Amino acid sequence: MLRAARVGRVGVVGAPVAKAAVVASAVSPGPSPIAKAAVVGAAVTPGRRRRI
Amino acid sequence: MSEYDLAELGPVDYLVVEFPEGQQNFTGEVAEELVRLSDAGTIRVIDILILVKDEQGNVDAMELSDAGELGELVKLEAELAELLAADDVVNLAYAMDPGSVAGVLVYENLWAAPFAAAARRAGGQLIANGRIPIQAIIASIEAGDASETTGA
Question: pTM of the predicted model, to two decimals?
């Protein structure tokens, strides 16, 4: 049950929120989740140069 | 604004963390980590709600204080600003699957506040922000790997 103070106030979210893709769905199939996590970790490691 | 200077505020974000039916394993670890982030001054917890969506799509919203034994969350509960309105519950619950429970967390990124304030003082204004999903990073890496393999 929401507190009365929340009822009738203008909201801050503004619009219906779309469900984000779930990370777990991105780690299969293919390499094991641990291997994929390592690759992602390497990709966001400081010093890695972008390839343009 | 008395306690907080607007110019010194950090960005405020929200998260909706869904716990699907049959996959709920509440051990208190999430609460411990949240309290740890707050105690460390990384974030300031502004609001917390617990949403329950039944199989018919009906949503019930609970205050943290109605969630039973709070443990370490007691100290956070006392400081909540109750920013979210009833209208927000409808919008946030839209993302939930039927049969799930979700925790909604609104928090100020205290860690970002000094940088944001400095940027404002320098005349900067935030014109875009966002989150890069892990899926997008994986897709980018895989696309790069594929193009290297094919020589494209």
Answer: 0.80
